[in-house]
Amino acid sequence: MTVAERAFLFGNDPEALAGAAGLAVEQDRAWSASALDELGSDPETAEVNLGEARAWSQDASKAAKALAFVRAQGLRPHMFVFDQELDDIQRHEREWLDVHIACKAKWNETEHCPTHGAAITAGRERQRQATIALRKAVHTAMRVAEEHPEKFTASTNPRPDGSRD
User: How far from chain centre, in Å, is Cα 153?
Assistant: First the structure.
């Protein structure tokens, strides 16, 4: 995904991009701290946690680049067309994470817990399916953007007086 596409997906909204970058930085720090905690006792878990930290760090960098792009291009925010898909993903993630957090099993064994495992597995699958739905919607939008780029430029963002660039 290009910087421009990422900016578009966040509605060219500086606040949304800054929020995404901030969340990614927080997650990077949390996963890094967790990796450090596990380093001496469970190197395998520490390595998994470091992989998560690296992924979140990359997300933070990509969001920051998209934010810089929006500011440099002077793009005005537009309605984000994938709100429902993102809400679905976040809702499903929250559902299984709440069960995961409540489970007393070791963090990487909660899916095997006889009490919580089925709910966690089902929730993750619902999140995965919602993610697939978002990807399909994004690919469709990107295809339309390629076929009709004039619909996805700064000129589609009306000025406060209603005129266009």
Answer: 23
Token pair, residue 56, equals 């979140």
- Measured CA to CA in angstroms, residue 147 lies from 81, 142, 144, 150 at distances of 18, 9, 5, 9
DSSP three-state, residue 164: coil
Residue type, 75: L
Buried b (16+ CB within 10 A) or exposed e, 61-91: ebbbbbbebbeeeebbeeebebeebeebbee
Residues 6+ apart with CB under 8 A from 99: 110, 116, 119, 120, 123
Contacts (Cβ under 8 Å, ≥6 apart) of 79: 11
- The pLDDT tens digits for 30-62 are 999 999 998 889 999 899 989 989 999 999 999
